[in-house]
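Sequence of Tetratricopeptide repeat protein (Streptomyces sp. R41).
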Amino acid sequence: MRVLPRPDLAEGPVRSLFDALHELHHRAGRPSLRQMAKEVGCSHTTVSVAFSGPAVPRWGLLELIVETLGGDPGRFHALWLAASADPTVPAAPPAAADHFPPPRQLPGDVTAFTGRDSQIADLDRLLAESATDATAVVISAVSGTAGVGKTALAVHWAHRVADAFPDGQLYLNLRGYDPDRPVSAAEALEVFLRALGVEGSAIPHGLDERAARYRTLLAGRKTLVVLDNARSVDQVRDLLPGTPTCQVLVTSRDSLPALVARHGAVRINLDVLPLTEAVALLSRLIGARAEAEPEQAVALAERCARLPLALRIAAELAAAHPAVPLSRLVADLGDESRRLDLLAAGEDDYTAVRTVFSWSCRLLPDPALTTFQLLGLHPGQDIGIEAAAALLDAEPVTAHRLLDTLTRAHLLDESSAGRFAMHDLLRAYAAEQAADRTDRQPALLRLLNHYLHTARRAAGPHDPWLAAEHSNLLAVAAAAVDISPEHTVELSVCLDRHLDTGAHYRDGLTLHGLALRAARARHDLRAEADALNRLGTAHLRTGSYTAAVDHHLQALAAHRESGDRAGEANALQGLGTLAWRLGRYEEARGHLEEALALHRELAGNIGEGAALYGLGTVYRQLGDYPKALDHQQRALTLYQERGDRIGQARVLNNLGTTLERTGRYAEAYDHYARALTINREIGNRVGEAVALTNLGSASLRLGRLADAADHHEQALPIYLETGYRTGQADALRGLGDVHLRAGRHSEALDQLGRAVELAHEVGEAEVETGALVDLGEAQHATGKSEDAADSFRTALELAQHNGDRYEQARALTGLGRLSQESGDRTAARRQWQTAAGLFDALGVPEASALHRLLDQS
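Predicted 3D structure, token representation.
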């Protein structure tokens, strides 16, 4: 811990800001620059500059530092505004490049962009006005029918003004009118947070938390946000930055009146191109032919309803067939061209452009036409070359060539290197065309096989391919339920660890729920039981213990009915884990010992290590530390022999907890540190947080209060981001214990009270009982004796009911202290003697301190 040098400043708002910041750093235990930088997500130099002045730091950086130190962002924002208004203050340095590289997400500019001068002028005016009115985010809403060029205008203008946004340009196609499902606000925020430098495993779980993190990262930055193809204001609202330095450009087929009314958006309406601009676009795309046949160029523009998407497709067709006169291409539309006029009449825009699509597709070479139609079968948002090759039953090089052909025909976009996506109208049309193909079913099965086999070959749950294809795998699994339910079942099996260790718990609930439906449709009792087991675990991770127990009980019955002994062992293991979480330790021991016997009966079953690990935890809670250490050490050996690093990390955490309970604090710390290293190397975010929480506990035991607080403060955001509520309660308890030891009783009461409440809500008995005893200590320290007595008694009842002798002894110790202070020395001695007997039987270090207290009483 070091005292950071303060800037030498005259009295005024800037000095007030820096004085408050340094005081907050002192109250937080003076964490090092590197500790703060790690939490904030920037270099220690950036943090050092923020503390040393004299320039006022950017608000986004300052807010993160204040939150890291446990300060009040509202108070500091007021100080920051006052300091920023001081004309004598040097300008803050630009956004540090080492915080995260500015995102540059804009797609390529549009070739031969033509017209839209008035709309571009409107956008330029809004940008200029935003530079002089720094009170609100400027939001522009470009609306118009499908294919009218909304995206083209947005992307073209964004490229023109990119230099005005040095902190980056964010872009996302929200797929508001996708035939399957639009991109949700939560999914969009995940994409943007990744672009802003947040690791995937660190992205908050909840929508509100994601939106808050997003706005914090954009605070004070000059960033352009392009939200393309939005369906409603609900899809957009949480994606709006909270800082006037940003500008937002939204495109939609809807006029988005709520965005205008509630958020002050300025609407920019796009109609089809004026005839002169439509002809000019054709001329730029097909050159001299349009000039040589001007009347036919006008007719072709009219046939395409002056719709930019249709005009570009028509121009590509004309360019691809230079020997065919324009008059022939115009005639090919025939009477069907009347349907294009429906666009202007406000009728079904999909029906209206079908003519152009069908005309375009009729002129494709047969292999390209087949490719276009079969791509309509793909359920995901985009497709890679390997997946396309499987769908087409072709070599990857052939598939790539065909995808390029469709891209040149404007029927496909290369969304990123080697990945291709369709305009939503084209996807719907392709799916319609594929509906009656005789090879539809074989193509779908090839696609499903590709995803399943590649997922099985993935190098562990954190393979980059799994991360890249995450959304497609879920979409494929959902599509397979009614096509090939066995694929849904198998994807649920092979993606289970990816979803679990990556903290994709909600996706796990969805996928395993689909697998359950698929298994029942097949009348496959064994697969049904396996899916129930995985659903039980997913519910456990989200803190839904009642639902988890129900699913594991159903799984146990189904496994026994089907005669699946390995599945039966897994179900018993799940029930044992839940019984331990709920504080039913004897019940947990029974389940886990039965599971262990089954695993050993099935020699070589990988579940033996998990059963040993679980039993070690239960024996620790029952106070049998030698048995706990024996089981945990055997589990660790098994995991090491099998090279299972996830299992090793879990057991190291558990072993450390038992060592800590027996007073071997340095050894415990070493085990936790090893667990932290492994979890970080394999990307197990929740495991990392558990190790950090445990390191905080051991640091407190070793008297290193600042380190303890730092570990807990690193863990808590991970728990919040991943939705792991048990961990949240544990980290809050740890922070409360640090505050209690440091004499910050008010903070201790707040954190411990929240820990008790959350642990009780989840049903986490171990954490609730321990937090109640700690809360009683904090209440006693603040003179709230009656509240303390209630907390100690509640903890004692829980511990007695659960068979937790350690927490019984701690609760009795606290009650004895209250009895002593109230003058009832007989009751105090009786309570302390009972506690001492329990501590002695357990062999824990608390025994000697209590005996000294008895000797003095």
